[in-house]
């Protein structure tokens, strides 16, 4: 049985390796979510995206999400990789691999991981526009549990 | 006691630094730390009212009591993916 994993990296993501690192002999499917940099946002042409992260916490939170997905949907291993640094149009900023005995749970778990990642993981992006300006992309405010 | 405070993304731009070391009285809470930062009379006074903070890499309420050596990170709205 493969273990869940989560990585923040400045290097390009290798999808074949990500899939191979999650699949084990009990799995019948592996689902890859491949999030890429788009050429425009709200109609404004984008030249590139610069990602930064609170890396150790981001890895901890992504691993927690991967393990939640595995438990909640009964999948096999879940692997999550998020890029940092300057990314060009078409490059992958995030990739999620969900291995699973059956495909149905894999689709649900993959969706869960990307939605939770966007709401909880301390990663930020700054868009560089074709006109040369750079702006932080507005994000989600993470929910904080009150003390018991 | 001493705590490390970390600033990221737009908050780092605001703070002009990614890290500040602060000395606080024993028993201080995150809210006291925030008050101390706002009272410095510099750009940190412009930190937003509703702040999200992580203590030692876990999200934590402003009522959290701090300990010597804690790492307190100010987390702007997140935008991964």
From TrEMBL, chain A:
InterPro entries: MoaE_sf (IPR036563), Mopterin_biosynth_MoaE (IPR003448). Coiled coil: none annotated. Signal peptide: none annotated. It is an enzyme of class 2 (transferase). The keyword Flavoprotein does not apply. Pfam families: MoaE (PF02391). Pathway: Cofactor biosynthesis; molybdopterin biosynthesis. GO terms for molecular function: molybdopterin synthase activity. It catalyses: 2 [molybdopterin-synthase sulfur-carrier protein]-C-terminal-Gly-aminoethanethioate + cyclic pyranopterin phosphate + H2O = molybdopterin + 2 [molybdopterin-synthase sulfur-carrier protein]-C-terminal Gly-Gly + 2 H(+). Keywords: Molybdenum cofactor biosynthesis. PANTHER family: MOLYBDOPTERIN SYNTHASE RELATED (PTHR23404). This is Molybdopterin synthase catalytic subunit. It comes from Longimicrobium terrae.
From TrEMBL, chain B:
Pathway: Cofactor biosynthesis; molybdopterin biosynthesis. Pfam families: ThiS (PF02597). One of its GO terms (cellular component) is molybdopterin adenylyltransferase complex. InterPro entries: Beta-grasp_dom_sf, MOCS2A, Mopterin_synth/thiamin_S_b, ThiS/MoaD-like. Keywords: Molybdenum cofactor biosynthesis, Nucleotide-binding. Coiled coil: none annotated. One of its GO terms (molecular function) is nucleotide binding. One of its GO terms (biological process) is Mo-molybdopterin cofactor biosynthetic process. Signal peptide: none annotated. NCBIfam families: moaD. Belongs to the MoaD family. This is Molybdopterin synthase sulfur carrier subunit. It comes from Longimicrobium terrae.
């Amino acid at each position: 049985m493969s273990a869940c994993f989560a990585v923040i990296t400045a290097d390009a993501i290798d999808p074949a390796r990500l899939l191979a690192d999650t699949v084990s002999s009990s799995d019948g499917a592996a689902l890859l979510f491949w999030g890429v940099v788009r050429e425009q946002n709200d109609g404004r042409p984008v030249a590139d995206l610069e990602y930064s992260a609170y890396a150790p916490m981001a890895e901890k939170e992504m691993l927690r999400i991967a393990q939640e997905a595995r438990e909640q949907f009964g999948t096999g291993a879940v692997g999550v990789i998020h890029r940092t640094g300057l990314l060009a149009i078409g490059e992958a900023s995030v990739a999620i691999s969900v291995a699973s005995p059956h495909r149905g749970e894999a689709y649900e778990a993959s969706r869960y991981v990307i939605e939770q990642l966007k709401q909880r993981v301390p990663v930020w992006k700054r868009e560089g526009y074709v006109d040369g300006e750079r702006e932080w992309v507005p994000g989600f405010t993470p929910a904080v549990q009150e003390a018991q | 006691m001493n705590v490390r405070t970390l600033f990221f993304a737009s908050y780092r731009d605001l703070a002009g630094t990614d890290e500040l070391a602060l000395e606080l009285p024993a028993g201080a809470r995150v809210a006291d730390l925030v008050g101390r930062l706002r009272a410095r009379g510099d750009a940190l006074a412009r930190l937003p009212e509703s702040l999200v903070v992580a203590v030692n890499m876990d999200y934590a309420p402003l009522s959290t009591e701090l300990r010597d050596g804690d790492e307190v990170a100010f987390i702007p709205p997140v935008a991964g993916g």
